[in-house]
Amino acid sequence: MPKAADRRRARPETPRKPAPRAALRRQMIITEAARQFSARGFEGTSMRDIATASGLLAGSLYYHFDSKEALFIAVHGAGMDMIDKSVRAALEGITDPWQRLEAMAVAHCDALLSLTDMRAIVTPHASPAMKPIRPALVAQRDRYEKLVKELVDRLELPPDVPPALFRLHFLGALNWAPTWFDANRGFSPSQIGRLLVRMLRDGCGAAGSTVSSGSTTSPESAASPESAASADSAASAVSVAAPKLRSPGPIARPGARNRPAGAL
Predict the structure, then answer these.
(1) Exposed, middle or buried by CB within 10 Å (0-12, 13-18, 19+), for 98?
(2) Domains of the chain listed by start with CATH number
């Protein structure tokens, strides 16, 4: 008859859930890492920088994340989750396609422009050093982009407006907002989302649909003086190769051809 010790050894081990304290420490690290990546960039931030800012020894940081790349992926994923959850909650109970797009744009802008340090992570500038982690970042982005594609595909667009090109323009406009947005001037994030959809809807001649109106001010007042002057050049900087339309998504694609360094 097997001894009690042998029976205990034969039992399959049950995976342990992270201790509450460890989960809180991990979230604290992600929050501080977002600040460091935002201020220094991916290449300019070291694990030692993040450990010091978090009040940890470097060895303790590696207990939670085995590399800077793994930590950046976790930070990016946290930002994407916040945007995705906000948008899905905003869509509940809305059936009209253009009103759903408006709700998505409002929630996207509200989340993106309120993330402060995190916004630089979910809309990073292209960096050659990020190439190895690009597949992981794209995978995190794809679930959200699938939702946006479903919303755009339900719109009654004119025959000469390709849905893929519409989606590129729409997401690009949303994700460029952090470069000029100033919370102390002009439009709120919600107004930016509403007006963008209104301009796209009216430009596409979608009569019959309604988009919520809000109080508006001059568009120039929404941007800081130094950034408003670059709006035209920023808009003309993004080039799209028609045969292969690729969504800019919530993140930049490092190394993408025909895309300037500062374009999303």
Answers:
(1) buried
(2) 85-237 (1.10.357.10)
